[in-house]
Amino acid sequence: MQETSLGRILSVLRARSWLVLLLAVPVVLAALWFARSQPPMYQSQIVLTFSPGPAGTADNAFVRLVPRYLLTATAATSLRTAEAAAGLPSGALGNAVTAENPTGSLQLELTATTGDAGRSETAVAALADSVLSAADADPLVDAQVIVGPTEPTDVTPIRRQVAVAAGTALSVVPGITLAFILEGLRPRIRIREDVEQLGIPVVLSTRRRELRRMVATRRGRVPDVLTSVRLQMTAGAPKHGTRAVVVTSVAPFDAASVARLAEALSRPTGGGDRSGEVPGAVADEAIALARPALLSDEAAQAAVRAHGKCLLVLSARDDVERAEECVQLLRRLDADRVGGVLVR
């Protein structure tokens, strides 16, 4: 398989975006359902502050005493006491309590979250009482409540938004994973480097709609972007007295692009005014023969053998293995000048 690059990754995702979106929809819907099914939750907070006790001193050693009360607030005995005070079942506060000590401060912030506003307030007050009781037993520390317990706030909308955001972010993972698995099973021609790895120089890389626009406009002459392509392909001595370029493809499904490209390359180069052309670059007007499906069409193979000059149209519909077969066939047909046109 081709070397992975940012351009190839992006081209695979663009080509298989429908798959990513298709698999993302059920994941997003599941996240929305999960978010809507979440019960209301209420949060209440208390802030305590600490100061030196009768036997303590306000120094760095005292500041280091404060964080140990984080363990007191979240200890199993403190949680069981708070659950009993709030009328909650055992274990209800296991993941519903947070205790924080801002770095270098003498404060302790306690938060309790439950499905009932009153129980959240009661539970956080009970946790604060456990901390105050522990501080009362320590002669080095005094503690007191400076804020709260605050009036419980409904945090359900935030939790639902987080659930939806997480689901949306993860929704693309299945599609992206499957897209690269499929690409690994059947690598396609995606970027210029894929064509060059086949040993074919890229003379033109364009989008399908740009090729249609290129052919539809300025019908009286070869579009400027194709003039240099034709000069490259028709340089040198003509084979069988004609400067013909065979435009072909790996398979029949690129026949429309082959026909458009051949039609544009067969136009006159510049109308009546040829002063800007390179003298001798094109001794007579070139023609381009549309012969798609080189691997399966004997007429296309015969044309390449007869004229030698060949433009191979490749697109993301072509897998690498078939493209390599086509290149090997061109070598066997003794195509003396081969260029690649990548239609993205």
TrEMBL record:
Signal peptide bounds: none
InterPro entries: Bact_polysacc_biosynth/exp, LPS_length_determ_N
The Polysaccharide chain length determinant N-terminal domain, residue ranges: 3-51
Compartments, as annotated in UniProt: Cell membrane
Topology versus the membrane: Multi-pass membrane protein
Keyword Nucleus: no
Pfam families tied to this protein: Wzz
Keywords from the UniProt entry: Cell membrane, Membrane, Transmembrane, Transmembrane helix
Family: Belongs to the CpsC/CapA family.
Protein name (record): Wzz/FepE/Etk N-terminal domain-containing protein
Source taxonomy: Bacteria, Bacillati, Actinomycetota, Actinomycetes, Geodermatophilales
